[in-house]
Design a protein that fits this description.
The protein is of the alpha/beta class and 370 residues long. The protein has twelve helices and 14 strands. The chain has two domains: 15-103 and 110-243, 3-Layer(aba) Sandwich (Aspartate Aminotransferase, domain 2); 246-369, Alpha-Beta Complex (Aspartate Aminotransferase, domain 1), CATH 3.90.1150.10. Bound molecules: pyridoxal-5'-phosphate.
Amino acid sequence: MQVPFFTFRDFPTGLQDQIESALVKESRRNQFILGTAVTKFEHSFSEYLGGTEVVGVGNGYDALSISLRALGVGPGDEVVVPSNGYIATINAVQQVGATPVFAEPEAQTFNITAATVLPVISARTKAILPIHLYGQPCQMKELLTLCTDKGLELVEDFAQAHGARYKGQTVGTFGKINATSFYPTKNLGALGDGGAVTTFDPQLANWVRQYHNYGQSEKYQYAMAGINSRLDSVQAEVLSVKLQHLNSLNQERQRLAQVYLQTLRGVGDLLLPVIPEPDMEHVYHLFVIRTHFRDALQQYLKEQGISTLVHYPVPPHLQPAYQNLGHQKGSFPVAEELAKTSLSLPLFPGMTEQEQQFVIEQINAFFEKV
Ligand SMILES: *Cc1c(COP(=O)(O)O)cnc(C)c1O
Protein backbone atom coordinates (compact mmCIF):
# COMPACT_ATOMS: atom_id res chain seq x y z
CA MET A 1 0.00 0.00 0.00
CA GLN A 2 1.23 3.52 -0.82
CA VAL A 3 0.58 6.12 1.86
CA PRO A 4 1.38 9.70 0.82
CA PHE A 5 2.67 12.15 3.43
CA PHE A 6 0.04 14.65 2.42
CA THR A 7 -2.46 14.88 -0.38
CA PHE A 8 -5.36 17.06 -1.36
CA ARG A 9 -8.49 15.01 -1.69
CA ASP A 10 -12.10 15.97 -2.05
CA PHE A 11 -12.61 16.26 1.68
CA PRO A 12 -15.03 17.23 3.11
CA THR A 13 -17.36 16.12 0.34
CA GLY A 14 -17.92 18.84 -2.20
CA LEU A 15 -14.98 21.06 -1.20
CA GLN A 16 -13.33 20.65 -4.60
CA ASP A 17 -16.56 21.72 -6.36
CA GLN A 18 -16.89 24.74 -4.10
CA ILE A 19 -13.31 25.77 -4.82
CA GLU A 20 -13.82 25.39 -8.55
CA SER A 21 -16.96 27.50 -8.60
CA ALA A 22 -15.18 30.15 -6.50
CA LEU A 23 -12.41 30.23 -9.11
CA VAL A 24 -14.91 30.64 -11.93
CA LYS A 25 -16.67 33.42 -10.04
CA GLU A 26 -13.40 35.24 -9.42
CA SER A 27 -12.28 34.88 -13.03
CA ARG A 28 -15.44 36.67 -14.16
CA ARG A 29 -15.36 39.42 -11.58
CA ASN A 30 -12.91 41.65 -13.44
CA GLN A 31 -11.20 43.04 -10.35
CA PHE A 32 -7.87 41.18 -10.02
CA ILE A 33 -6.07 43.20 -7.30
CA LEU A 34 -7.32 44.01 -3.78
CA GLY A 35 -10.96 43.78 -4.70
CA THR A 36 -14.05 42.30 -3.14
CA ALA A 37 -12.53 38.84 -2.73
CA VAL A 38 -9.67 40.07 -0.54
CA THR A 39 -11.89 42.32 1.59
CA LYS A 40 -14.40 39.52 2.05
CA PHE A 41 -11.75 37.05 3.16
CA GLU A 42 -10.14 39.58 5.52
CA HIS A 43 -13.53 40.10 7.15
CA SER A 44 -14.34 36.44 7.54
CA PHE A 45 -10.89 35.58 8.89
CA SER A 46 -11.22 38.50 11.31
CA GLU A 47 -14.55 37.13 12.49
CA TYR A 48 -13.08 33.66 12.83
CA LEU A 49 -10.23 35.01 14.97
CA GLY A 50 -12.52 37.04 17.22
CA GLY A 51 -12.47 40.52 15.77
CA THR A 52 -8.81 41.28 15.16
CA GLU A 53 -7.90 43.33 12.09
CA VAL A 54 -6.62 41.22 9.20
CA VAL A 55 -4.48 42.43 6.31
CA GLY A 56 -3.84 39.92 3.54
CA VAL A 57 -0.28 39.91 2.19
CA GLY A 58 1.71 37.97 -0.38
CA ASN A 59 3.07 35.16 1.80
CA GLY A 60 4.01 34.18 5.35
CA TYR A 61 7.54 35.50 5.14
CA ASP A 62 6.29 38.95 4.13
CA ALA A 63 3.70 38.81 6.93
CA LEU A 64 6.54 38.27 9.41
CA SER A 65 8.90 40.94 8.11
CA ILE A 66 6.07 43.47 7.71
CA SER A 67 4.93 42.79 11.29
CA LEU A 68 8.43 43.40 12.61
CA ARG A 69 8.80 46.57 10.53
CA ALA A 70 5.44 47.84 11.76
CA LEU A 71 6.81 47.67 15.30
CA GLY A 72 9.93 49.56 14.25
CA VAL A 73 12.21 46.54 14.76
CA GLY A 74 15.45 47.11 12.87
CA PRO A 75 19.24 47.28 13.05
CA GLY A 76 20.62 47.06 16.58
CA ASP A 77 17.55 45.19 17.86
CA GLU A 78 17.45 41.57 18.91
CA VAL A 79 14.45 39.32 18.31
CA VAL A 80 14.12 36.03 20.20
CA VAL A 81 13.18 33.11 17.93
CA PRO A 82 13.05 29.34 18.49
CA SER A 83 16.32 27.45 17.86
CA ASN A 84 14.28 24.69 16.17
CA GLY A 85 12.04 26.88 14.03
CA TYR A 86 11.31 27.12 10.37
CA ILE A 87 13.90 29.14 8.48
CA ALA A 88 11.41 31.76 7.16
CA THR A 89 10.90 33.15 10.65
CA ILE A 90 14.60 33.76 11.10
CA ASN A 91 15.05 35.11 7.58
CA ALA A 92 12.35 37.70 8.33
CA VAL A 93 14.24 38.93 11.40
CA GLN A 94 17.44 39.17 9.39
CA GLN A 95 15.59 40.93 6.57
CA VAL A 96 14.58 43.90 8.73
CA GLY A 97 18.20 44.21 9.86
CA ALA A 98 17.66 42.88 13.39
CA THR A 99 19.59 40.01 14.98
CA PRO A 100 17.87 36.66 15.59
CA VAL A 101 18.65 35.31 19.06
CA PHE A 102 17.79 31.66 19.63
CA ALA A 103 15.86 30.27 22.58
CA GLU A 104 15.71 26.51 23.01
CA PRO A 105 12.36 24.74 22.78
CA GLU A 106 11.13 22.38 25.46
CA ALA A 107 11.79 18.95 23.96
CA GLN A 108 8.37 17.59 24.97
CA THR A 109 6.36 20.29 23.20
CA PHE A 110 8.86 21.53 20.57
CA ASN A 111 7.90 25.08 21.61
CA ILE A 112 9.79 27.87 23.38
CA THR A 113 8.50 28.91 26.82
CA ALA A 114 9.02 31.86 29.16
CA ALA A 115 11.58 29.72 31.02
CA THR A 116 13.67 29.08 27.91
CA VAL A 117 13.35 32.66 26.60
CA LEU A 118 14.30 34.44 29.84
CA PRO A 119 18.02 33.50 29.79
CA VAL A 120 18.57 34.95 26.29
CA ILE A 121 16.91 38.33 26.88
CA SER A 122 19.37 41.24 26.76
CA ALA A 123 19.19 45.02 26.86
CA ARG A 124 18.82 44.98 23.06
CA THR A 125 15.91 42.54 22.93
CA LYS A 126 12.98 44.23 21.27
CA ALA A 127 10.55 41.39 20.60
CA ILE A 128 9.82 37.72 21.14
CA LEU A 129 8.70 35.80 18.07
CA PRO A 130 7.34 32.38 19.08
CA ILE A 131 6.17 29.82 16.53
CA HIS A 132 3.21 27.62 17.45
CA LEU A 133 5.15 24.74 15.97
CA TYR A 134 3.40 21.82 14.28
CA GLY A 135 -0.01 23.27 15.31
CA GLN A 136 0.53 23.28 19.06
CA PRO A 137 -0.02 26.62 20.84
CA CYS A 138 2.87 27.95 22.90
CA GLN A 139 2.15 28.47 26.61
CA MET A 140 1.07 32.05 26.09
CA LYS A 141 0.23 33.14 29.62
CA GLU A 142 3.83 33.02 30.84
CA LEU A 143 5.21 34.39 27.58
CA LEU A 144 2.87 37.38 27.77
CA THR A 145 3.76 38.02 31.41
CA LEU A 146 7.44 37.92 30.50
CA CYS A 147 6.89 40.46 27.72
CA THR A 148 5.00 42.79 30.05
CA ASP A 149 7.65 42.50 32.75
CA LYS A 150 10.53 43.17 30.36
CA GLY A 151 8.76 45.71 28.14
CA LEU A 152 9.03 43.53 25.02
CA GLU A 153 6.72 43.14 22.05
CA LEU A 154 5.20 39.77 21.25
CA VAL A 155 4.76 38.74 17.62
CA GLU A 156 3.21 35.33 16.94
CA ASP A 157 4.09 33.19 13.96
CA PHE A 158 0.91 31.15 13.61
CA ALA A 159 1.58 29.80 10.12
CA GLN A 160 1.27 26.20 11.36
CA ALA A 161 -1.60 26.67 13.78
CA HIS A 162 -4.71 28.18 12.16
CA GLY A 163 -7.55 27.60 14.58
CA ALA A 164 -5.42 26.34 17.49
CA ARG A 165 -6.62 27.68 20.84
CA TYR A 166 -4.98 28.48 24.14
CA LYS A 167 -7.49 28.77 26.99
CA GLY A 168 -10.26 29.32 24.46
CA GLN A 169 -8.46 32.12 22.62
CA THR A 170 -7.35 31.53 19.03
CA VAL A 171 -3.66 31.86 18.27
CA GLY A 172 -2.82 34.87 16.15
CA THR A 173 -4.62 37.17 18.60
CA PHE A 174 -2.17 37.22 21.54
CA GLY A 175 0.68 39.28 20.14
CA LYS A 176 0.75 42.99 19.42
CA ILE A 177 0.91 42.04 15.75
CA ASN A 178 1.03 38.55 14.28
CA ALA A 179 1.85 36.75 11.07
CA THR A 180 0.56 33.71 9.24
CA SER A 181 0.97 31.91 5.94
CA PHE A 182 -1.56 30.28 3.63
CA TYR A 183 1.04 28.11 1.90
CA PRO A 184 -0.95 25.26 0.29
CA THR A 185 -0.11 22.56 2.86
CA LYS A 186 -0.93 24.68 5.94
CA ASN A 187 -4.14 23.91 7.83
CA LEU A 188 -5.72 26.87 6.06
CA GLY A 189 -3.99 26.69 2.70
CA ALA A 190 -4.51 28.49 -0.61
CA LEU A 191 -3.71 27.05 -4.03
CA GLY A 192 -0.52 29.11 -4.11
CA ASP A 193 1.20 31.73 -1.96
CA GLY A 194 -0.64 33.86 0.57
CA GLY A 195 -0.30 35.29 4.05
CA ALA A 196 -1.84 37.67 6.56
CA VAL A 197 -0.98 40.07 9.35
CA THR A 198 -3.34 40.34 12.34
CA THR A 199 -3.52 42.98 15.05
CA PHE A 200 -6.04 44.55 17.43
CA ASP A 201 -4.22 47.88 17.06
CA PRO A 202 -5.98 49.96 14.36
CA GLN A 203 -2.92 52.19 13.87
CA LEU A 204 -0.65 49.24 13.21
CA ALA A 205 -3.27 47.76 10.89
CA ASN A 206 -3.46 51.02 9.01
CA TRP A 207 0.32 51.17 8.69
CA VAL A 208 0.39 47.63 7.28
CA ARG A 209 -2.46 48.42 4.85
CA GLN A 210 -0.42 51.25 3.41
CA TYR A 211 3.01 49.64 3.55
CA HIS A 212 2.05 46.39 1.77
CA ASN A 213 0.57 48.35 -1.14
CA TYR A 214 3.49 50.68 -2.07
CA GLY A 215 2.76 52.97 0.86
CA GLN A 216 -0.42 54.23 -0.78
CA SER A 217 -2.66 56.25 1.54
CA GLU A 218 -5.09 57.44 -1.14
CA LYS A 219 -5.07 56.86 -4.89
CA TYR A 220 -1.61 58.02 -6.08
CA GLN A 221 -0.76 59.45 -2.66
CA TYR A 222 2.12 57.71 -0.93
CA ALA A 223 2.59 58.17 2.79
CA MET A 224 5.76 56.07 2.85
CA ALA A 225 8.01 54.06 0.57
CA GLY A 226 6.18 50.77 0.84
CA ILE A 227 6.46 47.44 -0.91
CA ASN A 228 4.20 45.25 -3.04
CA SER A 229 2.98 42.29 -1.02
CA ARG A 230 -0.73 41.75 -1.60
CA LEU A 231 -2.92 38.72 -1.07
CA ASP A 232 -3.97 37.53 -4.51
CA SER A 233 -7.73 37.83 -5.17
CA VAL A 234 -8.00 34.33 -6.59
CA GLN A 235 -6.30 32.90 -3.50
CA ALA A 236 -8.56 35.00 -1.27
CA GLU A 237 -11.64 33.50 -2.91
CA VAL A 238 -10.28 29.98 -2.36
CA LEU A 239 -9.42 30.82 1.25
CA SER A 240 -12.95 32.10 1.92
CA VAL A 241 -14.29 28.71 0.87
CA LYS A 242 -11.72 26.75 2.86
CA LEU A 243 -12.14 28.88 5.97
CA GLN A 244 -15.71 27.62 6.26
CA HIS A 245 -14.29 24.11 6.58
CA LEU A 246 -11.30 24.93 8.79
CA ASN A 247 -12.85 23.74 12.04
CA SER A 248 -14.05 20.47 10.58
CA LEU A 249 -10.72 19.89 8.83
CA ASN A 250 -8.92 20.55 12.13
CA GLN A 251 -11.27 18.16 13.93
CA GLU A 252 -10.44 15.52 11.38
CA ARG A 253 -6.73 16.08 12.04
CA GLN A 254 -7.37 15.84 15.78
CA ARG A 255 -9.30 12.59 15.36
CA LEU A 256 -6.46 11.04 13.33
CA ALA A 257 -3.95 12.27 15.92
CA GLN A 258 -5.93 10.60 18.73
CA VAL A 259 -5.77 7.28 16.87
CA TYR A 260 -1.97 7.59 16.57
CA LEU A 261 -1.68 8.66 20.22
CA GLN A 262 -3.70 5.71 21.47
CA THR A 263 -2.16 3.04 19.29
CA LEU A 264 1.50 4.11 19.31
CA ARG A 265 1.86 4.67 23.06
CA GLY A 266 4.54 2.36 24.46
CA VAL A 267 5.74 1.21 21.05
CA GLY A 268 9.57 0.95 20.92
CA ASP A 269 11.24 4.07 22.28
CA LEU A 270 8.68 6.39 20.67
CA LEU A 271 8.00 9.76 22.22
CA LEU A 272 4.61 11.12 21.17
CA PRO A 273 3.35 14.73 21.11
CA VAL A 274 2.57 16.04 24.59
CA ILE A 275 0.03 18.76 25.42
CA PRO A 276 1.47 20.46 28.50
CA GLU A 277 -1.60 22.20 29.93
CA PRO A 278 -5.34 21.59 30.01
CA ASP A 279 -7.40 23.86 27.81
CA MET A 280 -4.90 23.88 24.95
CA GLU A 281 -6.02 22.87 21.50
CA HIS A 282 -3.42 21.36 19.16
CA VAL A 283 -4.47 21.36 15.48
CA TYR A 284 -1.84 18.84 14.31
CA HIS A 285 -0.49 20.64 11.29
CA LEU A 286 2.11 17.90 11.68
CA PHE A 287 2.17 14.78 13.82
CA VAL A 288 5.76 14.57 14.97
CA ILE A 289 7.12 11.58 16.88
CA ARG A 290 10.60 11.12 18.25
CA THR A 291 12.81 8.03 18.25
CA HIS A 292 16.53 7.29 18.39
CA PHE A 293 15.97 4.93 15.43
CA ARG A 294 14.63 7.78 13.29
CA ASP A 295 16.67 7.24 10.11
CA ALA A 296 16.18 3.46 10.15
CA LEU A 297 12.44 3.83 10.82
CA GLN A 298 12.05 6.36 8.02
CA GLN A 299 13.91 4.08 5.60
CA TYR A 300 11.83 1.06 6.67
CA LEU A 301 8.55 2.92 6.21
CA LYS A 302 9.71 4.15 2.83
CA GLU A 303 10.35 0.57 1.73
CA GLN A 304 6.79 -0.28 2.76
CA GLY A 305 5.43 2.60 0.65
CA ILE A 306 4.86 5.08 3.49
CA SER A 307 6.10 8.65 3.04
CA THR A 308 7.34 10.54 6.07
CA LEU A 309 9.27 13.80 6.39
CA VAL A 310 11.67 15.38 8.85
CA HIS A 311 10.75 18.84 10.11
CA TYR A 312 13.52 19.94 10.20
CA PRO A 313 16.75 17.99 9.69
CA VAL A 314 19.19 20.89 10.25
CA PRO A 315 18.49 23.54 12.89
CA PRO A 316 18.82 27.16 11.73
CA HIS A 317 22.01 27.88 13.70
CA LEU A 318 23.83 25.14 11.75
CA GLN A 319 22.64 26.33 8.33
CA PRO A 320 25.34 27.85 6.10
CA ALA A 321 23.10 30.93 5.81
CA TYR A 322 23.52 31.67 9.53
CA GLN A 323 27.23 31.11 10.08
CA ASN A 324 27.52 34.87 10.59
CA LEU A 325 25.79 34.45 13.96
CA GLY A 326 28.82 32.52 15.23
CA HIS A 327 27.08 29.44 16.59
CA GLN A 328 28.35 25.88 16.18
CA LYS A 329 27.46 22.27 16.85
CA GLY A 330 26.54 21.99 20.50
CA SER A 331 25.35 25.61 20.81
CA PHE A 332 21.69 24.51 21.01
CA PRO A 333 21.64 20.89 22.15
CA VAL A 334 17.85 20.57 22.44
CA ALA A 335 17.27 21.79 18.88
CA GLU A 336 20.05 19.51 17.64
CA GLU A 337 18.59 16.49 19.45
CA LEU A 338 15.13 17.21 18.01
CA ALA A 339 16.60 17.52 14.52
CA LYS A 340 18.17 14.06 14.92
CA THR A 341 15.17 12.25 16.39
CA SER A 342 11.99 13.83 14.96
CA LEU A 343 9.86 12.18 12.31
CA SER A 344 6.57 13.53 10.89
CA LEU A 345 4.02 10.81 10.13
CA PRO A 346 1.40 11.05 7.38
CA LEU A 347 -1.66 12.90 8.70
CA PHE A 348 -4.08 14.81 6.49
CA PRO A 349 -7.83 15.33 6.30
CA GLY A 350 -9.20 12.56 4.14
CA MET A 351 -6.61 9.98 5.24
CA THR A 352 -8.43 6.64 5.30
CA GLU A 353 -8.62 4.28 8.26
CA GLN A 354 -6.91 1.66 6.10
CA GLU A 355 -4.01 3.97 5.39
CA GLN A 356 -3.57 4.94 9.01
CA GLN A 357 -3.80 1.34 10.24
CA PHE A 358 -1.14 0.38 7.70
CA VAL A 359 1.20 3.08 9.04
CA ILE A 360 0.62 1.89 12.61
CA GLU A 361 1.17 -1.79 11.70
CA GLN A 362 4.40 -1.01 9.93
CA ILE A 363 5.74 1.06 12.83
CA ASN A 364 4.96 -1.85 15.14
CA ALA A 365 6.61 -4.27 12.73
CA PHE A 366 9.75 -2.10 12.66
CA PHE A 367 10.08 -2.02 16.44
CA GLU A 368 9.55 -5.77 16.69
CA LYS A 369 12.69 -6.18 14.58
CA VAL A 370 15.06 -3.69 16.24
C1 LIG B 1 5.18 28.17 6.21
C2 LIG B 1 5.79 28.94 7.30
C3 LIG B 1 6.28 30.25 7.11
C4 LIG B 1 6.43 30.90 5.77
O1 LIG B 1 5.37 30.94 4.98
P1 LIG B 1 5.48 31.27 3.40
O2 LIG B 1 4.08 31.62 3.06
O3 LIG B 1 5.99 30.03 2.74
O4 LIG B 1 6.41 32.42 3.23
C5 LIG B 1 6.72 30.93 8.20
N1 LIG B 1 6.75 30.38 9.42
C6 LIG B 1 6.34 29.12 9.63
C7 LIG B 1 6.38 28.57 11.00
C8 LIG B 1 5.86 28.35 8.58
O5 LIG B 1 5.48 27.10 8.82
